[in-house]
Amino acid sequence: MQQSMRLAVLGAGGLGRAAVKIISQKKSLSLAAICDSKGYAYNPAGLDLEELSELQAGQSVADVSKDGKLSSDPINEIIQIGSSHIDGIFIALPNLPNAFMADTLKRFIDAGFECAFTDALKRTSAMEMLLKLSQELKQVKSTYITGAGASPGLLTAAAVIAAQSYISIDKVDIWWGVGISNWQEYKATVREDIGHLDGYDINCANAMSDAQVEELLERRDGKLELRNMEHADDVLLELAQVVDSRDKVSVGGIIDTRNAKKPVSTTMTLTGKTFDGKTSSHRFILGDDTSMAANVVGPALGYLKRARWLKDNGLYGIYGSTEFMPMMVA
Amino acid sequence: MQQSMRLAVLGAGGLGRAAVKIISQKKSLSLAAICDSKGYAYNPAGLDLEELSELQAGQSVADVSKDGKLSSDPINEIIQIGSSHIDGIFIALPNLPNAFMADTLKRFIDAGFECAFTDALKRTSAMEMLLKLSQELKQVKSTYITGAGASPGLLTAAAVIAAQSYISIDKVDIWWGVGISNWQEYKATVREDIGHLDGYDINCANAMSDAQVEELLERRDGKLELRNMEHADDVLLELAQVVDSRDKVSVGGIIDTRNAKKPVSTTMTLTGKTFDGKTSSHRFILGDDTSMAANVVGPALGYLKRARWLKDNGLYGIYGSTEFMPMMVA
Description:
Two copies of one chain form a homodimer. The first copy, chain A, starts with a strand and ends in a 10-residue tail after the last strand. Chain A is built from 13 helices and 13 strands. Chain A folds into two domains: about 5-150 and about 295-320, NAD(P)-binding Rossmann-like Domain (Rossmann fold, 3-Layer(aba) Sandwich); about 155-290, no CATH class. In chain A, strand 1, helix 1 (about 15-25) and strand 2 form a beta-alpha-beta unit. By secondary structure, chain A is of the alpha/beta class. The longest helix of chain A has 21 residues, at about 290-310. Chain A is about 35% helix and about 20% strand. In chain A, strands 4-3-2-1-5-6-7-13 form an eight-stranded mixed sheet, sandwiched between helices. In chain A, helix 1 packs across helix 13 and helix 5 (about 100-110) runs parallel beside helix 6 (about 125-130).
């Protein structure tokens, strides 16, 4: 690994744009490449992050970066750069359809691209598809930490820590609040959330026009309340043996799409039984002034540094964010 | 490693006795050996934990276990068992004087004892002595996770997770509440706490008779309030690069020695600045009905499983509880 860790970010939506801003504040990171659905930008000496920080929703990196180019297959352009120029990849793709993340990783594997990876994947079924690639990933000496955002990610890891005090775990309850002042900044995220509402699924949410999304939000005063979401916290906590059944994990929350202030404090509550026969709960509560972007992208980069560390120490394959500590990025 | 992980516990004070009870409730663990200052007990097929669970404060394992023997050097007896019969060692020694933990580990190293280790070490200076042995420990292919209790341990690890949301960390504040119904169950712990009071140090606290401790507690209505304690959370968070200076970490709390109910909820609060310019705080709050023993020994065993995993994967040396996730123990 170089003095500075050279990153590629796949995706330039809300999370990708936040990643650009965070990387620009980290001395030990540089951004070598970024792509979106229309194009990519690459500079082996590091992209101009000030320029990229101006990227607005709906724009392509190909338009705003002096190193940008349009492409019909931007992910392939990143693969063609080759792994000798990239130390870590944060996959910040919207992950629609469900198999998109696994299919994308498969392309890197098939190209023999040897690297460290993280994602901010949310849905259980998408993660299950991804986890099947662990053996293939080992063959190309790569290391991938999945579910490395906030939920799953930060909150799920906190559940593993909390679980240590107990002999058995009764339930893990994640209840989040997200406030965004303009839903159009997070189009993919909001559509994913709509996909969790009763009567909707991810495909029909993805097929909705912006006007239809607006209309749905209007009917609900800008707020979506979601219960029993399909969130991969369940599979990660089952894999880490925190729960003996994923039914013991529930994820839900409220997103306010018209107010940057969170409607509720995001809280992970783990309830279990202690060796001395007590039932009790540990809680991990996120500060209300931390944005979704801070709580997702910060951990994803911290886990990316850990994934690189694991790779450099010969530990390959796919791991959950529940299995290793994220590392601080200077 | 065998089907069941064969442990040795060094120390049979409050923490050692809690370890016996927790191990007896874990299918995947067995206790091969335990020692205290007067003797030890060893059975390669696993000690009788029901028998050992009856151990009272002041008694020696040599007296209550049918496999028990008196010894003038109980730690040496454990060393003589040899590392082919022990998969992991939890060092639950009172750590008085300061160099005791490092000296003990040195004895294992000098004997070429190849194993996984954890401790529930508290004081910064004791941990600094220990950390210096990392290279020597690597030579004997052993792995040691230090500060694997509650503070440092559970709460410090939660701080590393929490820190991921922030660009820079202003402070980490650990404020604990401990309630014990009878201080004589935790003589060493209470003396360590007294050593943190103004006008006391660890040596004079250690030299106090039980009657003197009683008298001090009587004057304070059974409660000790401690601020700016020398706790190794600071060195661990500095090592993990969560803080750029250990002065940003403060540890304190209240121990009530006459009431099992906690006088305050144990809370880790991490305050930092986000990439988008906000100052905010994440909190990790332990359930009031979890005892000190549950919050210290549970993590220590979870980290011991991780230490063994690291060793089995060729990663040797001394690590902090801030560097790796503990693992669940079935």
